[in-house]
Amino acid sequence: MTDRLHAFEAIDNFRDYGDYATAAGRRVKPGRLLRSAHHARASEADLERLKAMDIGAVVDLRRPSERRDQPSRRPEGFSGRIIEGGVDDGAEAPHITFLKTADLTPDSGRRFMTQTYRTLPFDPSQKDVFGRYFQALADQAETSRNRAVVIHCAAGKDRTGFLAALTHHLLGVSRDDMVEDYLLTNTAVDLAGRAPGIAKQLHKMTGRVASDDAIVAFLGVEAAYLEAAFAEVEARHGSVEAYLREALGVDTARRDRILERLTA
After folding, report:
1. Cα atoms in the 13 Å half-sphere on the side-chain side of 29
2. Residue 1: which pLDDT band, with cuts at 50, 70 and 90?
3. Residue 71's CB: how many other CB atoms inside 10 A?
4. Which distant-in-sequence residues (6+ apart) come within 8 Å of 9 by Cβ?
5. What digits encode the pLDDT tens for the residues 67-121?
6. What integer pLDDT is reported at residue 141 of this predicted model?
7. Would you name the residues annotated as active-site residues?
8. Which tens digits make up the pLDDT trace of 36-68?
9. What are phi and psi of 255, to 5 degrees?
């Protein structure tokens, strides 16, 4: 088990995505970039631990309906920035619709995830939150306190994984390290151990039966998913740098402030 992973009582997939070498010969600072699944079930001990981390911003990538169903818990006296968004169209999350309606096989799960990643970078509400996250990183470079930022969605693997990978790209982390970090979800979460329980929950909710293999394929991540997202970004914008600039507002000045804050 890597020391990047932080064990919480009731927050899944919590880990540090800093502390990587960059192409410029510098290193991303540890303890400043954190990622996780949602915090709705955080225990009192978890909240105390979060408080000790001196978190300056929490970026919640979930849809409004997800936040209503599972509202976040925060440490008492939390003073950081909360960044969230999303158009409240009343629709359920796409992954829930998939679980209720699609053929529940490993192949169908992989097809769904690949298509999800192809469209994720261009969802208007996600782009808005992504842009405000990068703005928060730049803003903190201009303050005296270098506080941590936590990004999370529901499971902390897809929306969170793509945003963490974008951050790595901006900071000059190698593609190999970026993908390795992304795939840590498969280590941080006991996929095989959790699959039977999730299959039972799914059956109770929908009456449908899914194999453990299908659940594992849906719960985990594969390098091909992230590659699909970056390939689509490059196809539409020409490069990841152009996407960061044109879609998310990360111009040269903002990028330089982020590099100043997060690398040494």
Report:
1. 16
2. very low
3. 11
4. 42, 43, 45, 46
5. 999 999 999 999 999 999 877 666 677 777 777 776 778 888 888 899 999 999 9
6. 65
7. 153
8. 999 999 999 999 999 999 999 999 999 998 999
9. -60, -45
**159-171 and 124-140 are packed helices; what angle lies between their axes, rounded to 10 degrees?**
40
Predicted confidence band of residue 194 (pLDDT cuts 50, 70, 90): confident
Give phi and psi for 184, each to the nearest 5: -65, -20
How do beta strands 81-84 and 15-16 pair?
unpaired
pTM: 0.93
One DSSP character per residue, 134-145 reads: HHHHHHHTTSS-
Per the structure block, which two tokens stand in for 155?
Answer: 């499971």
- Do 202 and 210 form a contact (C-beta atoms < 8 A)? yes
| Residue 151 and residue 160 in contact, taking contact as beta carbons nearer than 8 Å | yes
Alpha-helical regions (H) of 12-149: 44-52, 64-69, 94-101, 106-119, 124-140
Which residue carries 């594969």 as its tokens? Answer: 222
Over the range 128-139, which residues count as b (16 or more CB within 10 Å of their CB) and which as e? bbbbbbbbbbbb
**Distant-in-sequence, close-in-space partners of 129: CB < 8 Å, separation ≥ 6:** 59, 61, 83, 84, 85, 86
User: Residue 122: which H helix or E strand, with range?
Assistant: none
Residue 94, SS3 per DSSP: helix
Round to whole Å and give the CA distance between 34 and 28.
Answer: 12
